[in-house]
Amino acid sequence: MDGEISTDEVKELLDDGADVRIVDIRDERNFAHSHIPGSENIPFHELTNRVDELEDADRIVTVCPHGKASVQAAQLIGSYEGTADARVESMDGGLEKYGMKFGLARDDGDESVDGESAERESPF
Which of 20, 22, 16 lies closest to 104, judged by CA? Predict the structure, then answer.
């Protein structure tokens, strides 16, 4: 693992079209409810069996509700031989912080959840 990255830095990477894979480690239901646009879902309990899906990545950012479990996920990914050359980081503050600042995409047709709605309907 290469450390933590702020929510602002993640947003900037996405806005700039950087070659980064955002890996959301929550379960499928919570991911479907809301997530960072462009992120992919690999639930933490499936990570060991699916880490090979990240072999082609140059940069990986793991995300979770509060930025705690994503540290463990980043460490696991970083220890995998297939991602040895990738930069692997955990997003500090998690989806709660990101959603309050920038909003999250929803799969139910809404474009985003603002901070107030995210707090009221928290999928975290």
Answer: 22
Per-residue burial over 82-121, b if 16 or more Cβ lie within 10 Å, else e, is ebeebbbbbbbbbbbbbbbebbbebeeeeeebebebbeee
This prediction's pTM: 0.87
CATH number of the domain at 4-111, out of 3.40.250.10, 3.90.550.10, 3.40.50.280, 3.30.70.100? Answer: 3.40.250.10
Q: Is the pLDDT of residue 13 over 80?
A: yes
3-state secondary structure of 78: helix
| Residue 30 scores a pLDDT above 50 | yes
At 35 the three-state DSSP class reads strand
Residue 108: the pLDDT is 59
| 107 pLDDT tier (thresholds 50, 70, 90) | confident
Domain segments of the chain as ranges: 4-111
